Amino acid sequence: xxxxxxxxxxxxxxxxxxxxxxxxxxxxxxxxxxxxxxxxxxxxxxxxxxxxxxxxxxxxxxxxxxxxxxxxxxxxxxxxxxxxxxxxxxxxxxxxxxxxxxxxxxxxxxxxxxxxxxxxxxxxxxxxxxxxxxxxxxxxxxxxxxxxxxxxxxxxxxxxxxxxxxxxxxxxxxxxxxxxxxxxxxxxxxxxxxxxxxxxxxxxxxxxxxxxxxxxxxxxxx
Length: 222
Prior knowledge:
The chain is α/β, with parallel strands linked by helices and 222 residues long. It is 29% helix and 29% strand. Strands 1, 2, 6, 7, 8, 9, 10 and 11 form an eight-stranded mixed β-sheet that branches. The chain has a three-stranded mixed β-sheet with strand order 4-3-5, with no helix packed on it.
């Protein structure tokens, strides 16, 4: 199911600066719209980066100064994805599905598909994730373990999801993640939930790839 085929492919970009990954994503989007590429799942990690979604007021949820950003080499980018502000850093597994929804034109249903992909991936590690009423992403009670934000052009999706695996979640202290105060929730990772040891991120990639493509195949038939 996860193997590349004429209809789908999975590409691993490794550690890629956010700005470069966005430029490359958009190039793939144009190729997918033109019919020159199959549905594509891109896997990667990013150096320390804060990104703002399209939600009004998202930039007000950055808590660190421009001097700190510059001193620590933290990139900041505004994006067209949905949602508020989030963080990326090494050890976080990011996935960008660049797929056509032409057969099932429902972006909200696609978001539920991404949530389910994460839930099934976490279950492989005996972690019971859940959706949380009125809040995006996947949670373990009040602890957020994954973020989601997508956009689309001509019914081809881009942006996607991020699962905290081995990354330093203290990096999220520089923002109000997704506009959620500490009274509403905190940020966690697979590593933290499983006792603090390093998690094999290649296993996370493998499981996520299989789960996503299985769900997407079903999605296209509905």
